Amino acid sequence: MRMLVTIAAVVLALDLLTKVLAVAFIDPRDPIRIVGDTVTLTLIRNPGAAFSMATGMTWLLTLVAVGVVIGVVRIGRTLSSPWWALGLGLVLGGALGNLIDRIFRSPGPLQGHVVDFVSVGWWPVFNVADSSIVCGAVLLVALTLFGVEPSGVRASRKGDAA
Description:
By secondary structure, the chain is mainly alpha-helical. The chain has one domain. Helix content is 52%, strand content 12%. The protein contains four helices and three strands, in the order H-E-E-H-H-E-H. Strands 1-2-3 form a three-stranded antiparallel β-sheet. It starts with a helix and ends in a 17-residue tail after the last helix. The mean pLDDT is 87.
């Protein structure tokens, strides 16, 4: 649990810091070019989920994020696997980062728009929290596919000798 909380705290701190800096230094009308037009820092306020889906349902996204946080904390109390702690810590930190935006940013509580600012090619604009959630989720799927349990034990496959 200590590793999970530490990872989540680091992700949350990085997310909050980068969002504060993005809002302070990036003009939404004038993206900062890092690598031509391929990689830019482009400030947008996203009322929806990933890929701007569910833009009219910010309150529901807020409740989903609260559920994710509660679920991760409950699972985290039983962890023995450092890989699961890493994956869940990334998801938790990212969920908290975007949840804070939804609660405290305009236009108001439970309706706040998430600050996104990293633009890479054709990919939708994202932030540290988004990338953390995706990386954590990919790791958790990989662990599940390879049969690594949250306890750290490898699950036996059908047909394996007991």
